[in-house]
Amino acid sequence: MSVCLPSSGITIRPGIDLCQSDLPLDWYQPEFRSYAEEYLALPDRKPETVLPWLDRYVKPAVSHFGDSLLLMAHYYMGGEIVKLVERYGGSIGDSYSLALLGERSPRASIIVQSAVHFMAEAVAILAQPHQEVWITNPKAGCTMEMMAKEDAVAPIIDQLSERYGDEFVVVAYMNTSGRIKAMAGRSGGATCTSSNAALVLDWARKRSERVLFVPDRRLGENAADRIGISPDRVAILPGIGQAESLADDWRRIDRAELLLWGAYCGVHSVFRPEHVRYWHDRGWTVLVHPESSLEVVRAADGCGSTSYLWGAVMGAEPGSRFAIGTEGHFVRNLREQAALHEIRVEHLAAVDEPGLLRVAGCGCATMSRNDPPHLAGVLDLLRRGTPPDINRVLPGDVVNESTAARDRLDTEERTELVRHARAAMRRMIEIVEGGSPCSSDGVWQ
Ligand code: SF4
After folding, report:
1. Same structural domain for residues 177 and 236?
2. Nearest residue CA, atom 2 of ligand 1?
3. What residue numbers bound the domain in which 299 lies?
4. Is the CB of 285 under 6 A from ligand 1?
5. Are residues 246 and 182 in the same domain?
6. Ligand 1 closest atom vs CA 74
7. How far from 407 is each of 15, 215, 313, 335, CA to CA, in Å?
């Protein structure tokens, strides 16, 4: 294997549960059905059962490709994948660290990503010419990204550009397609992640009178609050994909400094300030992800990216107690690992109080579409030289999340897209790596 991120410290012990929800057999592409049939026929989902089965496919591929193979998974992946990817020499990280890992691993020519599609596409945008990027399941899309597709966002950007000219710039959260990232690049703007949104937004407002932040309204509100943009200088754009014309809104938009696209993450929208109060009443520390609402972030004790949340808990003293407001698989993995250090972890919405919404373990369902049969299948098919083309990720691809069909750009269009999307990502990297220490490590408070 090539360069790796620091280990998460996750350990696989006999008897621990490796299970995530099994997918129905007809959800698998034809090329993956035989792997899925074998997996679904296993008697349980314990390491003693799953690991020997996976080893049959993954170990030959790891040995065949050697240093030219780089496995990656996002922290939100279902329990087994984050445990297994590291077991086979791969890396787990947040979207920012994974995006950089590919291009900084020049020996890797085959990069296999277990995460949602925009994360694999971000790796592909920064990839070197000899590097191929593959996703274990192309149907794994991010619902927030789906709320800001090119055909909805482009007409709005055109109108804003026409009205404000050079005094308008786009900041695109990492949870966007390459096509939206390219729009940010073309506008002179940048991409951002949950760990650096405030830093990038602060940069953007200093260079332009008006900023469009796309797609996550909540991250945009939290970043604005952090850098002191007054709420009366923020405008939420109407509808998601329905506002073809801004003609009725110019008076409101003209007064705003920050324009927010109206998308959000359903997984992080369940949290309420009452959940924070519930855990505070019991003496627990509350840490949340900035895709949560502004009210929740203000009530919490700390806020930051997945890397921050993981590090804050794993670095705490034995006996500490944390309620964590983010994706359920992540919290489950963190709970297991923290327990080894005598640290208690609960999901923020795992409450037991009449009238208070209980959503224990709300996970990212689309991320979980990358399961062990997909990991085994894609690696085995790559080794055999017969990987399905729809698992190959090229910048600018538009994927149908129901069928996995891909609409690809031609080479010239793709080269142009990569140029602009890379410009946006490089600006983020420059801002972050030259940025203030309090904002570059994922910590908000
Ligand atoms: S948790 Fe939410 S924002 Fe993250 S990948 Fe899943 S749907 Fe997208």
Report:
1. yes
2. 265
3. 273-347
4. no
5. yes
6. 5
7. 43, 22, 42, 40
